[in-house]
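Example record

Each entry pairs one chain with its bound ligand, 2'-monophosphoadenosine-5'-diphosphate.
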Amino acid sequence: MGNEMKGQGELPLLFGVIGDPITQTKSPAMHTAALQASDLAGTYVPLHVKKEQLADAIKGIVALGYRGVNVTVPHKVDVMRYVDVIDEAAKQIGAVNTIVNDNGMLTGYNTDGIGYIRSLKEEAVPDLSGKHVLVIGCGGAARGIIYALLQEKPGKVIVANRTRQKAQELADEWAHLGAISACGMGELAQAVQKNDIDIVINTTSVGMYPNVGELPMPTELLTPHMVVSDLIYNPLKTELLSRAESIGCRIHNGLGMFVYQGAYAFEYWTGRPAPIEAMRTVVLNSLQ
Ligand code: ATR
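Structure tokens for the complex follow.
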């Protein structure tokens, strides 16, 4: 066991996920399977923490000797105030979803964006360099993905959003990181025609259960050479993906993003390679 475990002695490793609400989370099942598959003695529990208790909860993580926690809605932004060090990517993205506790020193990371990109590369597009990518939406989820995507040196990234101004602000903020531009949904047809899009990524919640028939963009704009990806994994095949598939596009869903954001967290906490397939199987089974 590596230096990163120092101080834990023979005690089981403690992990959890902080959020409100927290009953629906699949992280405890996924990480419990990961710990078992890796032969590590540890426990991962859901921790229901309200906004006004967040500061105390983080102090509790240190006091109780938790090795790490995930942070989910609604605390990903606020929690940044309570950690000692924030990883550069998390700082730029403006959200933390993973905390590592090194003997009382808390470091905050964002594994959502890198998790999604690892999933996209493993499962659909091994090399993103030079690709033309259309991202629908520019909220919290999109920020993580776009930041991680820009590290892969894509040819261009076009961010399309219902509120055009928000997409423009994001494109301006990260103009130094790569070729990024913005458009409104009304300009989408023109943007797709002009930019020879290779990959479409839906980062909005449009099409998520229970609104399963909804589409985040007109699918007439899709052509068979495109890879179409949706961050949603409930349902596994959204209406967007279903239509894209019938057009002949390669499709990619959000299940891998969830698995790989957890995988990165597991690797930061334990220093071990995450048992991806064991993790994926548990999440898949919980969805059926
Ligand atoms: P998340 O953290 O899941 O990304 P968010 O930060 O609230 O959530 O961002 C939601 C994104 O989805 C935004 O880009 C939002 O567009 P606006 O900026 O115009 O609000 C987009 N979105 C949400 N619901 C939408 C809908 N019904 N149609 C189009 N876009 C939608």
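The chain has two domains: 3-110+257-287, 114-253.
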